[in-house]
Inverse folding.
């Protein structure tokens, strides 16, 4: 027992810690007879499981044959024939993928029910040719008692058996006896209620999250099977299974509402790419592949938001006030010129005065259409005025409507008129709008940003197509897209044809014109950029129906206006108000699962309460479930973290750890960075994963110190960080992840470097499944000294 820890074990869960078994589960026999009975049970289960795999092989062979048959028909025939073949081929491929996905752990449980044949529970449902049930899908309603039955409420279950398998071999059975009156001597030989869970929790970490289908706990099962409709918030401390439960919920919802969700798709939003990598194998292992995993940074099609920026800039951009700023920035681009605009047309000069421009602008604004669509109203008004002037100039006096229409058309294609119209009311992509805004103090002032805000947000116009966009820009691009509306693909294509011409014009402009003109020229280039053209092509292709081969997730990812069937948000406390606004646009039916922990909020733009985030969209109509048991962090380590949690909020309650390991956390004072390497080397977990969590402001320095002295160590986020034996990460990068061992470096600096420093330190201290160490140069922060002090 640690100095600080105490064995706080779960409330009324059916599986408890080994040393804390409830009397019902403490029946064990250790003699030879029991060993023999156990072997007999194993052999029986092996027989059944072998039969299931034979059935699975048969179904795979049959489905493969059906798929081969369809593919052998080739690509000929009518459009209808082709489309039917495509959909059959899609259906068989999908079924085949599902049958292959369940190879590992096909069957993991058995339910013995009063007066009925046992039910075997597994990753999918199987029946024989006479439709007799062989295996029940874990998501089916009849499988529910496997996760929910307790001795107090057995739900008709007399025994719940966990089958441990390796490949196709049954290597162990592990029983919960729920109806003790029916206990036989043979039953007593295989009792070991909590073994399956503890075995799963004790395994070394591989850098990838595993599914928990065999050991879902009752409070988690309630969340997984909660109704599809409405917003469900799952609040829970670190390690309570929020992520893993959210993923199983996705699989459950797809199974239960397959048709609805297959059409509209499910989106899972995670905090960063490393995290998505960490969880990406869970759903495929449950046989579900057509789900879109994304970060907020990737939610705007065609934009890769990789650039970094200050926390201050991100916080400004995350605030709801930016809706007004973006709206003003659009207005700013609907200019009324300060002086009349002269348009040279050969021998004639036409003049656009301010009154005409203002009238055209007001008419366009009154149309209430987005900027790019309202442009046609503006253009019509201006062309009318110019046509009348031109008629006069040509000495043609009174013209009828037909003649005027011809004149308007001639003027529309005149380059000088086009240039004038583009300046007065340009077609704008969201990218152009924001690039122009952040590159100009004048525009930012007009949009309502203060001097300090302008200072934080100012960015030069990008020179190339390098990393320009940040994660916090993405909701702003989305906001701008709403206000600007689409640009007609025809216009974009025409613009592309003139790209070369415009490139030259832009270069000339760059040489001769003032700053704002330069920006304008660059924007023209952006407007004619290939990425926009490709999007337009894809858009057109989708409308022609050419995109049938895309999965729902792929189609959804390419379409900013896609409305999903369900959205799951993980680490949801980190999202800014603007990010929520963007997400809510993608889920008009508000069917959402939001998982997170308010105590772990690290982002300055993140949230301090679920009501604050959700009430504007759901008006109080959302429900909350709480997860209370920590499956990751052992008792000994959680005692350290609990002290820090009190710093986050004196009333916050740490989750109860399910395990004790007997391994005590340690703290070591060092003289300098040089000493870090040997300490890290000494903590490497053979065959497991170790993370060194460092203050963000010194990530590069500590990264170098560790990677230069520890073989195989990597610094910074990414797939390598998950796979390497040692990774050096900041708290933000380690959020949501877990490791066998954790070393937290300079906790004082982590506390001090952000207004949410206490939450950050809490997150850092709760990443370990087994070992925790703290390394510091100065004094240990007081909050750690109770458990780690001398
Ligand atoms: N019922 C269970 N059976 C086996 N393992 C479980 C179970 N529930 C949770 N776990 C394991 O506990 C660990 C923590 O789960 P998870 O990462 O989902 O927690 P979390 O609440 O999202 O944590 P955090 O808030 O710190 O990100 C994971 O390894 C997960 O697989």
């Amino acid at each position: 027992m640690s100095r600080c820890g105490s064995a706080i074990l779960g409330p009324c869960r059916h599986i408890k810690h080994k040393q804390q078994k409830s009397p019902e589960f403490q029946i064990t026999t250790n003699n030879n007879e029991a060993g023999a009975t156990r072997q007999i049970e194993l052999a029986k289960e092996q027989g059944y499981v072998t039969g299931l795999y034979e059935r699975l092989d048969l179904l795979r062979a049959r489905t493969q044959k059906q798929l081969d048959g369809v593919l052998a028909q080739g690509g000929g025939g009518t459009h209808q024939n082709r489309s039917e073949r495509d959909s059959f081929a899609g259906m068989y491929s999908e079924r085949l993928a599902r049958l292959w996905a369940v190879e590992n752990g096909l069957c993991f449980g058995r339910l013995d029910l009063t007066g009925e044949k046992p039910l075997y529970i597994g990753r999918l449902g199987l029946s024989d040719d006479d439709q007799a049930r062989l295996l029940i899908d874990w998501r089916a309603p009849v499988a529910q008692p496997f996760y929910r039955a307790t001795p107090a409420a057995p739900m008709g279950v007399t025994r719940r058996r966990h089958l441990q398998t390796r490949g196709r071999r049954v290597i162990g059975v592990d029983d919960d006896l729920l109806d003790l009156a029916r206990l036989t001597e043979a039953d007593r030989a295989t009792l070991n209620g909590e073994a399956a869970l503890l075995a799963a929790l004790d395994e070394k970490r591989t850098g990838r999250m595993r599914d928990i289908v065999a050991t879902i706990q009752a409070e988690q099962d309630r969340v997984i099977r909660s109704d599809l409709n409405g917003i469900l918030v799952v609040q829970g401390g670190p390690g309570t299974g929020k992520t893993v439960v959210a993923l199983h919920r996705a699989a459950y919802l797809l199974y239960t509402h397959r048709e609805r969700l297959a059409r509209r798709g499910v989106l899972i939003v995670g905090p960063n790419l490393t995290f998505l990598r960490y969880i990406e194998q869970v759903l495929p292992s449950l046989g579900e592949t057509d789900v879109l995993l994304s970060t907020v940074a990737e939610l705007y099609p065609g934009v890769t938001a990789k650039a970094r920026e200050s926390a201050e800039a991100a916080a400004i951009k995350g605030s709801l006030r930016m809706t007004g700023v973006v709206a003003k920035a659009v207005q700013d681009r609907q200019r009324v010129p300060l002086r009349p605009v002269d348009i040279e047309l050969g021998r004639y000069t036409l003049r656009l005065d301010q009154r005409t421009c203002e009238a055209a602008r007001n008419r366009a604004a009154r149309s209430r259409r987005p900027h790019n669509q309202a442009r046609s109203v503006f253009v019509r008004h201006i062309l009318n005025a110019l046509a009348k002037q031109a008629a006069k100039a040509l000495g043609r006096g009174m013209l009828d409507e037909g003649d005027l229409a011809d004149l308007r058309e001639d003027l529309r294609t005149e380059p000088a008129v086009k240039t004038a119209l583009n300046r007065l009311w340009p077609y704008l992509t969201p990218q152009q709008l924001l690039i122009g805004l952040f590159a100009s103090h004048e525009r930012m002032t007009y949009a309502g940003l203060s001097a300090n805000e302008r200072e934080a947000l100012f960015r030069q116009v990008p020179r190339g197509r390098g990393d320009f966009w940040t994660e916090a820009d993405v909701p702003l691009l989305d906001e701008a897209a709403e206000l600007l509306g689409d640009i007609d693909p025809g216009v974009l294509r025409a613009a592309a044809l003139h790209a070369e011409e415009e490139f030259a014009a832009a270069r000339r402009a760059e040489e001769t014109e003032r700053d704002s003109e330069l920006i304008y020229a660059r924007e023209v280039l952006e407007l004619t950029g290939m990425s926009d053209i490709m999007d337009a092509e894809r858009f057109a292709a989708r409308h022609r129906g050419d995109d049938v081969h895309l999965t729902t997730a792929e189609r959804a990812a390419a379409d900013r206006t896609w409305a999903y069937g369900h959205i799951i948000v993980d680490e949801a406390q980190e999202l800014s108000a603007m990010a929520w606004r963007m997400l809510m646009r993608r889920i008009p039916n508000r069917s959402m699962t939001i998982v997170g922990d308010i105590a772990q909020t690290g982002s300055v733009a993140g949230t301090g309460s679920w009501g604050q985030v959700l009430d504007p969209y759901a008006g109080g109509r959302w429900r909350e479930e709480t997860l209370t048991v920590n499956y990751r962090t052992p008792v000994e380590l959680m005692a350290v973290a609990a002290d820090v949690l009190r710093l986050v909020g004196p009333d916050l309650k740490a989750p109860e750890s399910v395990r004790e390991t007997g391994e005590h956390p340690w703290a070591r004072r060092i003289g300098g960075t040089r000493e870090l390497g040997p300490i890290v080397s000494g903590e490497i977990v053979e065959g497991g994963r170790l993370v060194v969590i460092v203050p963000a402001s010194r990530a590069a320095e500590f990264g170098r110190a560790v990677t230069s002295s520890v073989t195989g160590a990597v610094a910074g986020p990414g797939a390598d960080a998950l796979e390497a034996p040692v990774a050096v990460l900041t708290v933000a990068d380690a959020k949501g992840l877990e490791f066998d061992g954790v070393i937290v470096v300079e906790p004082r600096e982590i506390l001090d470097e952000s207004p949410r420093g206490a939450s950050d330190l809490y997150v850092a201290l709760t990443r370990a499944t087994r070992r925790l160490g703290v390394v510091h140069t100065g004094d240990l922060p007081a909050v750690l000294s109770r458990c780690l002090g001398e």
Remarks:
- DSSP finds 35 helices and 22 strands in the chain.
- The first strand starts at residue 107 and ends at 113.
- The first helix runs from residue 32 to 72.
